[in-house]
Amino acid sequence: MEDNWKQIKIQPSGTIIYIVSAKDFMKVIKWNPINRKLNKKHINEICQEYKRNGDVMGNFQIIKDNEENLFLQNGHHRCTAIQKLLKVDPNIIIDDLIVEVRKVSSFDDEISTSLFLKSNNVLNVPETENPNAVIIKVINNLIDIFSTGDKKSIIRKADADKRVNRPFINYNDLYTQLVDSNIIKEHKLSAKELVDKILRKNNEYKVKYNSIKNDTIVDKARKYNFFLGIQLKDKFKWVREIRLELN
Fold it and tell me: Residue 189: left if φ>0, alpha if ψ -120 to 50, beta else—which one?
């Protein structure tokens, strides 16, 4: 990273500010697994703006974990626009980017979560009242509960374009489903309350599927005692079921 990134300042907080070309930036950056779905119309508007003058407005905020991974915290629409333009024309002229890098232990630790929520909270809702913060806590609790024992989790922190096979679940997909369901906001649930409801739903699915024999997916679900990701066509049907039960 440092070979092509020009360091220009170290902030008192430890955040390091770099200047880097758009191409070099896109080579190493990873999407934050808890980023929500992007607005295609907004991406296309950014593409048109970049085509006109190549001016990339605003800094990009990223975190660097203990494994040297660089996760994007803010600027997903701008990055997607850059990625799209470079794919069409690798020689397009785009201004160098200003990037803020913060060192953390992992993308979902307490500091990273706080930074993500603050950088993506356009309504300036206090973090303690932000339902997304509760959802992140819920998912992290589920990861601890359903640890596979091989330093992996039933809830996989895969890149947005990587497939996660059943009965495992993509972290980003689960985050998006829980946010879009509006469960936390509508019913004022705590992280513990939602985790308890999810565990009860998992037990319901266990009763439903556990008796099935000679099925590889069910065998995996049985091994990890996790049955929520077992369905082929509607992996997150259980989220809607929980929401309906609360109404």
Answer: beta
Count the neighbouring beta carbons within 10 Å of the beta carbon of residue 193. 15
User: How much is the pLDDT for 127?
Assistant: 45
pLDDT digits (tens, 9 = 90+) for 19-34: 998 888 988 888 776 6
Q: Pick the closest to residue 120 from 96, 140, 105, 136 (CA basis).
A: 136
Which residues have CB under 8 Å from 14's CB, separation 6+?
A: 102, 103
Residues 67 and 151: their CA atoms lie apart, in Å, by 14
**Of how many residues is the chain composed?**
247
Pick left, alpha or beta for residue 149 (phi over 0 → left; psi -120 to 50 → alpha; otherwise beta): left
With pLDDT > 90 as the criterion, what percentage of the chain qualifies? 15
List, as own/partner pairs, every contact residues 192-200 make where C-beta atoms lie below 8 angstroms and the sequence separation is at least 24, other chains included.
192/141, 194/134, 194/135, 194/138, 195/138, 195/141, 195/142, 195/145, 197/242, 197/245, 197/246, 198/138, 198/142, 198/228, 198/238, 198/242, 199/145
81-116 tens-digit pLDDT: 888 888 888 888 787 889 999 888 776 666 666 666
Q: Give the residue-averaged pLDDT of 3-21.
A: 88
CB atoms within 10 A of CB 151: 6
Question: Which domains are present in the chain?
Answer: 1-106 (3.90.1530.10), 121-247 (no CATH)
Nearest to 97 by CA among 25, 43, 11: 25
pTM tops 0.70: no
